[in-house]
Amino acid sequence: MRSTYKALAAATALLLASAAPAVPVSLTKLTGLTGGTAAGTAVYKADLSSIGLSTILSIGIRDNSSGLGGAAGQFSGFDLDAIKLSTTDCLDAACAATAVGEPVFSFTTGTLFAPGAQRAPADPKLFGTDASGAALDDVVATLGLFDAESSTVTPAGFLSLGDNGTIDFNLTAATSTAGLFLYIGEVGDNGEVAAGSIVVRDTPTGLPEPGGLALLGFAAAGFATWRRRRG
What we know:
The protein is of the alpha+beta class. The chain has helices at residues 2-18, 93-98, 138-141, 210-230; strands spanning 23-24, 28-29, 41-47, 55-62, 79-86, 111-114, 159-160, 166-176, 181-187, 197-201. InterPro entries: Ice-binding_C.
């Protein structure tokens, strides 16, 4: 019986964590551009020290440009050059590109990608994704570096989310928001970040959502039954 109680308690804690709210962040565009030889990446900064969370464990980005940014085919939607957390307070894109970042991203194991739609003519997959088009290709996207070429003729170093696509980064460790800044690189400098939704959370993402709440109710009911039997 004690093991049953422990399992129910663990499940309840996990599901309560999944219900933690996502906190939207406000971004400010830095001056100048960075990126590859074409230097076509705009960088946006968010001061995370005032968001009301003491630590963060995940970051989410959603494209909601509805066709306003990006291009056709595999370059539809928000083109993400890089994402970085740093305690360096930068005023321009070049500074953000060279600032020392917190080593808390694991792009190969901690990233959840849900590709959005492509504008015609569609390609087999969005740029920067793997062969299936359903996951990040870290060798191509290189989201830890501000290195993207803004030209779609010889593209390199970024990920296209697709229209209404989403990407979530689970950090490898809880990261204090004190003096912490979030930097996001947008390839092409065409306003895709401003049309997107950026959130941070103090819990990992990818846990059960609506169905999880139902499971929580089931677990609580089971626990109540167990208590009655004990009585």
